[in-house]
Predict the structure of Ribonuclease BN.
Amino acid sequence: MSKDDQKPNEPSSNSQGRRNFLKGSAAAVGAGLAASVPGVTSAADSDCEMKNPYGPRPGGGISLPDYYKPWPAIKNRNVFMPGTEILPKNEMRISFLGSTPWPPTRLQSGTSILVELGNGESQPRRFFFDLGNGSISNAIAMQVPAPLINDIFISHLHSDHYADLPYFYPFRAFSGGYTPLRVYGPSGRTPELGINHMIKHMKEMNRWHEENFNSCPIGDGMNIEVTEFDWKEENGICYDKDGVTVRHWPRSHVKDGASAYRLDWEDAGLSFVWTGDGRPDELSAKYGKDVDVFVSEGTIDVPQLSSMKLGAPAELWEYTIDIFHTMYYASGYLFKQTQPRMAAICHYEYAGPALEAESTAEVRSNWDGLFMFAGPDVQVINVTKDAIWSREALLPDGAAPASMDPRWLLKPGEKLPAEIKLPTPRLPREMQQEQFLRDLEIDPKKYYPPDAYRKPVQKWPGITLNPRQMLEARGIKVDDDK
């Protein structure tokens, strides 16, 4: 029968449906069966040669090392519960506050990675790599105090890597962050394409907001100290303080001015790499060597399937991947070149359950070691010299910020004083609002119940905190020598 004679709903002679496949006779088992089904190959038992790269571990899987295990500082082995674990000295914790470029979903916010270095105290040292859209909500839910969100390293100026910055910095000052915010990032081919220019105009865009919040005690919190480094520099140092060094190198991401970062913590002998966005490159393979945790961006390489799902031509997906991004095959290749103790992919679009196996298979085509995806938000990795453990953070949908601690307002090493005076507002309301608008306000006595009425406070009263009293109310006793 020719194709022209074939009925519209009749399968072609070489079509192999799942039901027909399962109805095949036992005689078809083996090489003959495999040959009759496109995409299926025969495999004898001896062909299965996958081995655990970390050595034989019966019952331990084929990609898990013996150092993948929890330890006493891990309070809950299954989930990370913010505010319940003190990060010990010489321990690093990496939290993926956001993990996608586009589209944002309820599972994934814009890209942001928090690296915390333990000092045995309630507030570890913190470094933020990118600050994508929605990531601040996860930082707050993780009980990171807003005033202590600082040292933000922007990999490049795509908005999914810094979109929360213009939203966040005025509210940080409003919340007690009275010291300048520190931001680091690359220059561009011209001055107008560097992070200095972006921050300058971001603040201009926010002028109304800044002046409005200057009616509150904000100190120097809305000042931003920008460290702009040369985007061309290879393995340049952009941060070097108290035993922590952050280095950078350029990446190929269509436009000049995209960078990768490596953090090295000398005291603990631990390290972290975030590639940012870009094509697979030799510099990331070189400078990521032997890092503890190597995080790459990643993209599934199924342009034909993307075309069927979303309607756009496959060539569009191919072009986008091939000039902007690192496909999962290449992420696995970079992991193989750098040999990290833990590999992870952040800045990826979760493609759904049906494609999880394909995504993993593409990575596994080159990397057979310890590996994870950074989503859904928030995945957490704890790292010591001897062990690594990963969990998902347990976050309530309506998480409140961390309770205010007057010690946040002190400089490093400063002893707790008897009193802390809050900064005086620079632009009180009467300096930036015309009187007729205040005259339009409804008399509070009209809407307050009589036994709830209080006289409105509309002039800055001058506020002084008693830090010991505040801490004692929370059951915290402070040594007078500290």
